[in-house]
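Q: I have 81 residues here and want to know how they pack in 3D. Can you give me a structure?
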Amino acid sequence: MRAHAVSHAARGRYDARIAREAGLHLDPVRCRRGRIAGHGLAGLADPERPGRPPSFTALQVTQVKALACRLPAESGVPAAR
């Protein structure tokens, strides 16, 4: 969505047309375009979000997902566990 909005905005298209062509609502297109206008390329990045920091590292999350995707017979643990 970001790349689409930026490329079309660079061509001089209006926000409403960008939103219509991309199948998006107008508000996110306006918001993203405003961030890019105010911050340049740094506006493409996601802003910091409020809330509690993650409890698990990316590696731990990946390991749990890998374990969850294995068949019970492969891990030697009954399906009930």
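Q: Anything worth noting?
A: The CA atoms of residues 31 and 37 lie 10 Å apart. The mean pLDDT is 84.
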